[in-house]
Write a structure and sequence with these properties.
The chain contains 16 helices and 19 strands. With 514 residues, the chain is of the alpha+beta class.
Length: 514
């Protein structure tokens, strides 16, 4: 029989002990009592309960907003080139303007194409020019908006401390959010429903709201409502946007909750210049197209930081600070579907999964002992060890166990003995052919190895395909199946070989008990 070197024996034992060690937290219960590096497997939404949200990214709103910005750029380009125009208006997906003079029209078209990448400018027969994004540019914009939305959603949910959330795109403009353990989705929905677009705009002190309603509003200003019911006229162009914020925290000023913020170097410079040049004017702090505060600029703020005051409670100040820290959503989100899985249902799923696993384990053990006697008992040891190694690996990589994942574990229990069946049957054939005990045992392992690799490799390829192309429950099944194949090959071949080698060397039998 092939002798294993001392170093290989120690390596095999070390791997087994490490797997058992990292699997232990799954047996002791409450993971809050354990260190962070020694935790049980995370349970998915279907096992511990929680909330499932399907969000739609309102990409049309982003395109409409882009058209409004392009309208401003078109107006500025026409003024710089001193071109007369009529009926400049931004629509849902295009900007139209009429220019009667042919030469001026040609000059304007050249200027419009430089406004942004991906714009196509079409000239009509009546002097009307239409500006819109190309199909490719729109697709790229949609993909970018969805990717940004997923990242911001992840940041906001991570800030709330939700354990192991699953956030991924679904289709062209939807985001699927799974929140294990979250039984109150209303809080998350409120958090995700705010785009948190922050900007600082100077208030136009020369124009009142009444004058603006009578048509005396300049093209560089716009009307906006404040949280306190006041209507203000503010500059369209922001002094600085929330994208330059690097930190935001809830704080207290004179016992009143406020939100303190800090800009990056570019934002701090812009903010400092604006406050220095407009002392005595009002600065509107605009969040999601509503003025939450419009204080007077008492003095230049040159430190790159400041405070937002308003009718805040401590909770609302903390929420606003969280939103500003995590960043603004590029587009509003709409909840299309909401499902809540109760903790009791998840507990029932775990019990049923454990019951199925125990039944499968007992059936496999009974068959192996009945078919192969003592060697079947050796196989039973490796099957239990395989379960510990699987749980240990899942715990180490921080995987999330779902109900399909439990199905993968149950399937692996049955597959774990396949290699042993091949090895033992080969041993029987060698014994029938008259080979000695040691030679038959050696041949069982060496001759069956190629078949074991082929059979497990094909299953492993299928698992990786499911892992790559699948999502949600399919990926959970694929992860446990792939890990189970790897650990079962280790236990069924390497550990079983170690046990049988030790038994042969100690008892020196004249006949194999199979």
């Amino acid at each position: 029989m092939y002798k294993l070197s001392r170093s290989r024996i120690y390596l095999i034992l070390a791997i087994c002990l490490a797997g058992i060690f990292f699997a232990v937290p799954n047996l002791v219960g409450d993971k809050t009592k354990l260190p962070k590096w020694w935790q049980p497997v995370n349970l998915g939404l279907d096992l511990q309960g929680g909330s499932n949200l399907l969000l739609e990214v309102k990409i049309d709103d982003v395109i409409k907003e882009r058209m409004a910005l392009i309208e401003d750029s078109v107006r500025q380009a026409l003024r710089e080139n001193k071109i007369r125009y009529q009926n400049l208006k931004a629509g849902a997906d295009s900007v139209k303007v009429k220019i009667d003079n042919i030469n001026a029209r040609s000059k304007a078209i050249s200027a419009f194409r430089k406004i942004d990448d991906g714009l196509q400018v079409e000239e009509g027969s009546d002097g009307m020019i239409e500006i819109r994004y190309t199909e490719q540019a729109l697709n790229e914009l949609k993909l970018k908006v969805v990717d940004q939305s997923i990242e911001i959603v992840r940041r906001r949910i991570d800030e709330t401390g939700t354990n192991e959330p699953s956030i991924q795109s679904q289709g062209a403009d939807r985001i699927a959010v799974q929140l294990p353990g979250e039984q109150n989705p209303e809080r998350i929905k409120a958090l995700l429903g705010k785009t948190a677009k922050l900007s600082f705009n100077l208030v136009d002190s020369r124009t009142s709201a009444a004058d603006a309603r009578r048509g005396k509003l300049s093209n560089t200003s716009r009307l906006i409502n404040s949280a306190e019911g006041e209507t203000l006229v503010i500059s369209r162009k922001s002094v600085v946007n929330g994208e330059h914020l690097v930190d935001a925290r809830a704080a207290f000023q004179d016992g009143i909750p406020v939100v303190s913020f800090k800009f990056d170097s570019i934002g701090g410079k812009k903010f400092g210049e604006a406050t220095q040049n407009n002392v005595g004017e009002r600065l509107a702090i605009v969040l999601d197209n509503e003025v939450i505060s419009a204080p007077n600029i008492q003095t230049a703020i040159l430190g790159g930081s400041g405070q937002i005051s308003g009718n805040f409670t401590l909770e609302s100040a903390q929420e606003l600070a969280l939103l500003l820290r995590s960043g603004a959503l590029p587009a509003p989100l709409e909840v299309l579907e909401e499902r809540t899985v109760g903790a009791g249902l998840g507990s029932d799923s775990i019990k049923e999964g454990i019951t199925a696993s125990v039944i499968g384990l007992i059936a496999v053990v009974a068959f192996m002992i009945a078919a192969y006697g003592l060697f079947g008992i050796f196989t039973t040891i490796t099957v239990f060890l395989n379960l510990f190694l699987m749980l240990g690996v899942l715990s180490i990589i921080g995987a999330t166990l779902t109900l399909p994942g439990i199905a993968g574990i149950i399937l692996t229990i049955g597959m774990a003995v396949d290699a042993n069946v091949l090895i033992f049957e080969r041993m029987r054939e060698e014994v029938k052919n008259g080979r000695s005990t040691r030679d038959a045992a050696e041949a069982g392992f060496t001759e069956a190895w190629a078949t074991i690799v082929d059979s497990n490799l094909t299953t492993l390829v299928a698992a990786f395909v499911l892992l790559y192309f699948g999502s949600g429950p399919v990926r959970g099944f694929a992860v446990t199946l792939a890990i189970g194949i790897a650990t079962s090959m280790f236990t069924s071949v390497t550990v079983t070989r170690l046990i049988i080698t030790g038994w042969l060397q100690k008892y020196k039998p004249t006949k194999l008990p199979i």
